[in-house]
Description:
Chain A has two domains: 17-158, CATH 3.30.1330.10; 166-333, Phosphoribosyl-aminoimidazole Synthetase, Chain A, domain 2.
Amino acid sequence: MHLQCPIPKTDFDVITLGHGSGGQLTSRLLDTFVINQLSNPELEKRLDGAILQLDGNLAFSTDSYVVSPIFFPGGNIGDLAINGTVNDLAMCGALPKYLSLSFIIEEGLPVSEFWEVIQSIKQAASKANISIVTGDTKVVEKGKGDKLFINTSGIGRLHPKAQIDVNRVSAGDVIIVSNKIAHHGMAIMSVREGLIFESNILTDSKPLAHVCMSCLDKFGDSIKLFRDPTRGGVATTLTEIAESCGKGIFIQEKNISLDPSVEGACEMLGLDPLYVANEGVFIVIVDALKANEFLEFLSQKEETSFAFKLGEVTDSYEGKVILESKMKGKRVLTKLIGDQLPRIC
Amino acid sequence: MHLQCPIPKTDFDVITLGHGSGGQLTSRLLDTFVINQLSNPELEKRLDGAILQLDGNLAFSTDSYVVSPIFFPGGNIGDLAINGTVNDLAMCGALPKYLSLSFIIEEGLPVSEFWEVIQSIKQAASKANISIVTGDTKVVEKGKGDKLFINTSGIGRLHPKAQIDVNRVSAGDVIIVSNKIAHHGMAIMSVREGLIFESNILTDSKPLAHVCMSCLDKFGDSIKLFRDPTRGGVATTLTEIAESCGKGIFIQEKNISLDPSVEGACEMLGLDPLYVANEGVFIVIVDALKANEFLEFLSQKEETSFAFKLGEVTDSYEGKVILESKMKGKRVLTKLIGDQLPRIC
């Protein structure tokens, strides 16, 4: 375990039901482990909510995180919960500003694990430049939860040039994926299945807001849509987009950028990387005239250095996603069916 | 069961892990049971977040609800989750406008129960005049959750006259409680313990924003603080206030307004009503000059018809809450210790 701060001394090693009572134990848990770590003036007021001064168009998003296990290669449920909501706001074309943080803890969670999660939250919040301004903590009995669930909700300020709207997607637009895919899902699978892959696959969880905002600075309304292909992967997200806009989407398997270790792991488990979750990748649909310049712009940034053109929007195949395989065969992609990878985020 | 709308026909009776996959089953669950029920333009866009136009000072609040059982006399986890966050915003002095809604469902939850919760959410949202603009749904394996957990986060617009600030609380201010106490906690206990009390005790869960806003309209900055005594009850909330403002709080047991059925149930279970959770009561600290008029104003409204003066802020007893018993004995109240009533909200 890699801890930035030494864990505070307490007279309890595990979290108990009493820590969720709203009384003395709750205060002590929050004082010692949460509020002083994530400190800011709003949080320290300990009110039922935070008062924020904001003007204009705001984005508002929520996600509950139930990933299992809560620690996995490259991250844990804490940074995942921060980055995930930061990215949902970024996908709306908004710069994330304020997050809420709500814990549902299973009785018996070791305090050391809770501390490690808090430290990751602290670092992720700092990296994404957001403040955690309000929160909540509940504890449920052993066997009524699974270590730790986290909800984060967030508010961001819409970028002035953002025109993110699925109805603006039109034939000819280019579909760009911001990085190599399927890392997060395969990182979780590796620990869950106890597999040892050729090389250690890490989650790609990271904040994408900064890069999305710089795309909007430069390309403005040439950007039609941002979406992050988390649960259900790239295939499910593209299918949702095709259904929403009523256009066809044509993609080519040969274009997909995949790390050899991820490709090998997917083959070993019989998983299609197009359906595997990502937590640090976005899909952007951009005006064809700007597509090459956009791709060049992304490839120069660290978070998106493996960006690739996956395909394009077309007037054919109305509302459907067509994949052309490496062998030039074509098939319709569907949304993920069933539960290929439950509790991936 | 009292259902407003007939339950939609589906080919599944229970919710399965696949409904949380983010794929086809998730779409079907949300389309059939959630989005068309809570319909509004933002929700129907099915984006990663909602875009809202808001200006000025906003309140932002979050709460996760893990109440057990999820159905209880007078309500269920659905309306509790709406009213709870609506009230947290009201306690900040804000008019609630937009809520997010996030489910963590345990595999195997009967669709009929989910439907009943959604119907309660719909009614509560309508009653509180808020829109649910964004959401999330996760499913965990059987034994890794407990039927249903709900997070709601909310955004409200600060009332222009609101000056809610614990630092404005000063000696002489009067502490008013808006209604009879301890109903919610005793309603939950009655079903949890399988007790039959003399009369059926119902939760007091209700939205308080409307009444709080009309108090602010009329009394403006004479209102120093609103707080809702949920988990930990009136005693814990007052102790937190005393600690925060550094003043003493003196309250008199003889003033407490308690329904005879609640009083009897508390006696039977050995519970102190001052520590039992409320979900439709607020504590307000008000300038002494306005206290009688304020009490009169509250007592004319349905939601607060049993409002009573509980005590006052004093320069004695720095940071402590002193209860004078009916026998004129005095003792210091503390925050709730341990887990008198776990998972009450």
